[in-house]
Specification:
This protein folds into 2 domains: 47-189, no CATH class; 190-228, no CATH class. Helix content is 19%, strand content 36%. The chain contains 4 helices and 11 strands, in the order H-E-E-E-E-H-E-E-E-E-E-E-E-H-H. The N and C termini lie far apart (90 Å).
C-alpha cells in the first residue's frame, strides 16, 4: 500500500515539475534512496529549508537546487536557504558527508546565480597520528557563481537547462582541500608506538624508545660500549 501511494505521488510530482506548476510556495523533490522513496520538501519562499530524514545514504540529488524562480525574477533578487541534512550524503563516488548544516544566499546577477554562505560539513577521516577514525567537522565558506546560460567551455558550475544548480561538485572541491591537511583525532593524541604499533591512546606498552637523532646513533653505540 505504501509503495502504491509513493508511486502515485511520484507520478503527480513529476507531472507538476514537467509543467513547471507552482504548488503554493512549496516545491517537492523526490529522491530515490536504496529501495525506499522519501519526500523532501524545499521551501522556496522567504527562508528555505532543505531537510532530510532517512537511515539510508542519501543521493547527492538533495544538493540540487531549483533556481528557476530567481532566473525569472531577474538581477537583484535574492533568496536565503537554511540547509539541514542530518544523514549521510554521497557527495561523490569518493566522498560521503555525515551531515551538512548551514545557510546559503542565492543572488541573481546578470551572469547567473551567485551562491554564498557558510556550511559545517562532517566527514569521517583517519587521525594523522594514531590512525583512528574520527568525525571531522569542516567549516566551508561558499562563494561561487553558477553561470546562466551555460557558458561555452568546460565548467562544473552552471545552471542547467532544467533551471537547477548542483552544489555537489563545489562541496567536493572544498572538502578535498580541507582533507589534504593533517588532522588529529584530538589535540593530545599520543599516537602509535614506533616499535610495536600499540595505540597509546588506548593502552600502554613496555617498549624502550630511544629518541635519538639517527645521525648520532653511531656515537651512542660507542658510548654504550665504553670503547672511548
Amino acid at each position: 500500500m505504501l509503495q502504491k501511494r509513493v508511486g502515485v505521488w511520484f507520478h503527480i510530482v513529476s507531472l507538476c515539475l514537467t509543467l513547471d506548476l507552482k504548488i503554493s510556495y512549496n516545491r517537492i523533490i523526490v529522491c530515490y534512496i536504496g529501495k525506499l522513496l522519501t519526500l523532501h520538501t524545499v521551501r522556496l519562499q522567504g527562508h528555505n529549508i532543505v531537510n532530510t530524514s532517512s537511515a539510508s545514504l542519501l543521493s547527492n540529488r538533495v544538493l540540487t537546487i531549483n533556481v528557476g524562480f530567481l532566473l525569472s525574477d531577474g538581477p537583484g533578487n535574492q533568496k536565503n536557504i537554511e540547509v539541514e541534512i542530518d544523514n549521510p550524503v554521497r557527495i561523490a563516488d569518493d566522498l560521503v558527508a555525515k551531515s551538512i548544516q548551514g545557510h546559503l544566499k542565492l543572488s541573481r546577477t546578470r551572469e547567473g546565480i551567485l551562491v554564498q554562505g557558510n556550511l559545517d560539513i562532517s566527514v569521517d577521516r583517519e587521525c594523522a597520528r594514531c590512525l583512528d577514525a574520527f568525525v571531522h567537522d569542516i567549516p566551508v565558506n561558499v562563494a561561487e557563481l553558477y553561470a546562466s546560460p551555460h557558458p561555452i567551455g568546460e565548467t562544473e558550475f552552471f545552471v542547467g537547462q532544467d533551471a537547477k544548480l548542483n552544489l555537489a561538485p563545489l562541496l567536493r572541491a572544498e572538502i578535498l582541500i580541507a582533507l589534504s591537511h593533517r588532522e588529529l583525532c584530538r589535540e593530545d593524541c599520543k599516537g602509535l608506538c614506533t616499535v610495536c604499533g600499540v595505540n597509546h591512546n588506548h593502552e600502554n606498552c613496555d617498549c624502550e624508545i630511544d629518541n635519538i637523532d639517527p645521525r648520532l646513533a653511531k656515537l651512542k653505540e660507542l658510548l654504550d660500549s665504553d670503547s672511548i
